[in-house]
Structure formats: C-alpha cells, structure tokens
Design brief:
Blueprint lengths: L13 E2 L2 E2 L3 H7 L5 H15 L7 H14 L7 H12 L35 H13 L2 H6 L5 H14 L3 H14 L3 H18 L4 H10 L6 H14 L8 H15 L14 H8 L4 H14 L3 H12 L4 H17 L5 H9 L6 H12 L9 H9 L14 H8 L6 H7 L9 H6 L9 H10 L7 H15 L5 H10 L7 H15 L7 H7 L5 H12 L2 H11 L6 H14 L7 H8 L4 H15 L6 H10 L4 H11 L7 H9 L15 H16 L3
Antiparallel strand pairs: 1-2
Amino acid sequence: MFRGIDEVDWASMEHAYGSAADVPELLRRLASPLPQDRETALDGMYGAVHHQGDVYDSTLASVPFLFALAGQTGLPDRGGIVELLTSIGGSDDGEPLGDAFGDGEDGDRDGDRAEGGQNAEDPGDDNHAMARAAVRAGAAVFLGLVTDADPEVRRAAPSALVRFHDEPPHVLALLSERLRDEQEGGVRLALVESLGLLARLHGGSTAPAVDCLVTLCDAPHDPGLRLAALGQLASCAPDRLPADLVPTVVALLHTRSQRIRPSTEPVRTSTDTLIGSLRRMRPADEEGAQLLRTLHKALGDRTTDRIALLKGQLSSRNTADRCNAVWMSAGLFRDWRAAYEEPVALIGEQLGSDEERLRCAAVSVLEFLFTLAAPAADRLADLVESGTDSRRRGTATLYRPLKALARCGDARAVPALAEVLRHPAVPNETGDAIGHLGPAAAPLAPLLRERLAEVPLDSPDTYDRAVPLLRGLGTLRYAAAVPEVLRLLHGTPRDLRLRDALVKALARTLGAFGPRAREAVPALRELLTAENAVAAADALRSVEGDAEAVLPVLLGALAPEGDQRSRRAAAEVLGRMGAAAAPALAGLRHLADSAGVWERTAAACALWEIAGDPEPVLPVFREAWRHNPYTRGTIAACLVRMGVAGAPVHDLVRTELASPRRHRARSGGHGSHDVLDDELLLRDCRTTLGTT
C-alpha cells in the first residue's frame, strides 16, 4: 500500500497548516488496526490535506496511496477513504458532494457576504483540475469496490464510479446488475442515488437510468427504495413523477416507519474529531432524513407540494419522522418565500412532545423565524411559562424558547425576561430579544438600569455584562439610565478588555436617549477626538443637534485614507443629519464612486437624504443591488423614503417581489437573521410600489 511513500519529498510540500511532512504518518494511520487511529487520521486528512475542499500539492501526492488503501481488501473503514477520494476529485458539474448534516438547499455563491468584496478566482483551480484527472485515472478501482465484502465500501463506491468513470453505459449496466443482486438496504439506496446522479450528469445518453428509476417507484419494491427513486426522479426527470406525488410519499413514509428496525450500524468511536462529531450528530433515522432531504431539495420552488409534504410528515405517529420534518422545514423556510402558517403551527405542536430531540429541533427552527413563528407562539408561551428553562442551568445563554417567543414580538415573554434580569449576569441575546418586543418591554427598563449599575468597572467581563443591558436600554430609550451609562464611560480603566468596543456601545446608547441625555454632552464632546469619534459624533448629533460640532469629525472620517468601516459609518451619520450635512456632499460623491460596495451604498443613501437628487444615487443602487444581495435591505428602505423619485429602479423591486427565493438564499451559509431581513425587504419593496 505504501510502496514509494518515503521517496516522496513531503517536506517540500504544503497543506492547510504548512509543511506536509506529517502526511505519510496520516496515510499510514488510515491502515491502523485501532479504530481511533483511523478516525483521527481521516479527520487529519480532511482538516489539513483537504481542508474545506482545498487541493494542495500534498493532496495530489496522496491520491495514489489513498487508492491503494481503498483497494486493500479487508481493511476497515475504507468507505471513508472512498468518500475522501470522491471529495478530492471534486465536481465541475454543479453536483454537490454531500450535505449530510446541512439544512440548507445548496451552497452556491452568487453574491458577496455582508461586508463582501469581489468574489476572487480560486488560485487552486489548476490543482483541482489535476485532482479530478488523477481520480479519473484511477477510477477503475471503483469497479471492483461495488461488490466489496464491506457494505460501507459498497455504499460509497457507486457515486465515485458515476462521477469519475469514463464509460456511462458500462456504469449503468453495472449499477442495474447490482440493484438486482444487492441485499443490504443502505447500499441499495446508494445505488438508486447513483442512478439519479448518472441521469443528471449524462442526460440523454443514460435515458435507461430514468426508466429504471420509474420502475423502482412502484410496488413491489420496499417503501424506502421507492422514496429514494422518487427523490432522484424529481431531480432528473420531474415530468415522470406521479400526479399524486405528495399522498404517495406520505403513505410510503408512514409504511416505512412501521417497518423500520433499529440500526445495525457498528458502534462508532467517540474521538474528539470532526468526523466523530458529525457521526454523533446524525439524526435518529439518518436514512429517512436523507431520503426526505433529497426529495425536498429536488422539489425546489414547488413550495405548495413541499408544505403539503411537511404537513404529512408532521402528522406521522413516528417521532423520528416528525423530527426529520422539522429539520427539513428549516431549508424551506430559509430559502423560499411562501405562506407558512400551517407548517409552523404544526412545528409548534412538537413542543409538547416527550421526546427532547424533537422539542429541541422545533425550538431551533422557530428561533430563526422571528415574526413568522407567531402561529406557534401559544405553544412557545406554554413552554416558557412551564419554567423548565435555563434558569436551572445558569444564564450564560438566553433560554431558546424564550428567545423565540420574544423574537416573534409576543408580550408573554416579558415576565420571563424580567426573571432573567434578576440575575447578575445577563445573557448577550437579551438586548436583541427586548428589541423585538417594542413598547411591551418597557417594564423591563428599571431592571436593566439596576443591572447596569452593578456592572464592575474593571473586570475582564465588564464588556460582556454591560453590552446586552445597553442594547436593551437603548431600544427602550430609557434616559433615566444616563448616570449609570456615564459611570461606565468615566470609570472604566483605559486598559480594560474591549474598552473601545464598550465605549462605542455606551455612545450609541446615549445617542438613542436623544435630547433627554443632555448631561452626557461634555463626555461625548471629549470622545470626538478618540477612537470612537464617529459613534460619539452620531450620539452628540442626536442629543444636542449641533451640526457644526460634529461635521469636522465626520468629514475627516470620509477621507480616503480612513478605514472602510469608519467611512461607511460616517456616511450613515451624515445621511441622518439631512440638509445640515451639505458641506459633506463633495466627499460623499467621491465615496459613491469608491471600490467598496457598502461604502458606495451608504454614500448614495446619504446623498439622497442631504440633497434629494436621485441622479447620482440610482446608478449606485442598481449596481449594488445586483452585485451584493446583502445591500438590498438598506437600498429598499431608502427607496421607501425616495417615493416616486426612485421609480427608475422600481424594476429591481418588482423582480424581487416576483422571486420565490429569499434574497440571501444563494449567498453561501445561513445567518440567524436572514429570514427576518428578507421579510423586512419584502415589506419595504411592497411599500415602495404602494402594494401594501
């Protein structure tokens, strides 16, 4: 297996963490008789040699030895090695290489992230191409692995064979033969998935693969296999799906649940590795989760069918089916726009389950829905009022059902938040939760003030304890707390941990208090020459309204030599000043032509607020809207204020409202506020067009 490994100059190669001199040891440990060694070595290969899908020279040099390991009959855990080879070989066809534990629809990236820059070309493209060629060159090995004695190997081999073997008809014949002879259920499902992959990759040349899938959708095949075939058919030939798809799937799901048996998978090791963690995170019915995930993803924007399917899943007597349905709903809610009242209410019903895994899944989904979680609010309130919360375990984080209840704006969260505020250490999410309650949270203001008065001035956790309280007080505009805010501003030592960030938070809170915080004016004036000058200027503008005092600071922050965040922040403050900021127009026009999309957007908004001239503003909005989806909320809010003056870009707004997909759905990953921000964007788009 390792012939020639010591002749490779590994020390001259690199992986994600520097020298690749340790790669030979990782490869050898993949063949260790000890399961813990093999798992740790595989984790090391993913963590360094193939870090986040990257391909290094050491990755390429490893491929021959990985093939030798994969072909070593009797060696345990070779299925993981085949999967590693498949990942290294990559895909230039848009097919995902696996999302076993994700709840999103895909990982495509067509926009920059929140502070985005340009999407750079991957400097490792040549290495990726060489990796694909190397795995294709060795793909004959996979032919023998589809009949290997190890079911894990037989499960991993079909996908690799489809992706990298050069003779699709031969691969199709082999897969069809294996489907007739294979007895192990998990391997049969992998074969069905590979038939779908073959049909997607090779189109008309493998039409018999689609015919085979259609046959597998019917009796007498077992329910799991039929569900797998339906999922693959939905992705490669949706026109061949049965007309009664949803009732068929729900019936098959219920039948499968009645027949399901405990897993026969061998007990895995519990090493502290990424691989080990992922294995422990797998759902109770991993096979069922994968079957339904495949179908949901293939159905895409067919939200009516997907909602009906979720309702069927959530009505199952089987807890694992309902738990899978909750997790499936997360990708749907995050990525697609639709009316979700019914499935959200059904997810709320799961909060009364005796199964902790199901309750936790339901809370996790409701937590990121904000106002869309309202149909489940009664169940959330029952759970919160039951008292079975984190107060028994300390208050490092806010009790998640309470956070979900507060985020949907339900006043029943207020008594529980008051109880949280009676503890010395307040969870960081508390201020954000209060912000979603609006005036209903007013009774919490005195408690916030009391806790702020108790925050030590010179402790390592001063910042952590103060910030959630400051956010809450600023949201409620509770100016009675000005003395407590000034106590921290004047009393914290200069070498305090995160002091600059704390000072910025203090200034923002004083600014939120407005003219009622006039006693803070001297302190804010002193800050105009400090690190947080822009935040201090914004606060002073709000408290005192003296444009002449803050304009020099803001004009200085607009200078090209300043940092991007300060320029953007200064532009936003100048916009809030309106016509009083006219001396900044020249600097803002220059900023609107700058390289940073967020700076351009902020400058354009400010130009409108100050001068009311749409001509220099709308071209910036159009370019930013298209280039970076994260800017759309800011732009739409400004378009609301512009009224008819924004009409030349209303085509963007109409297109947004017509899109079934959330505006950040394809930006890569998910943020905790993505659904809320999309709902706010839709609200502002409707207001802009007068369709609310």
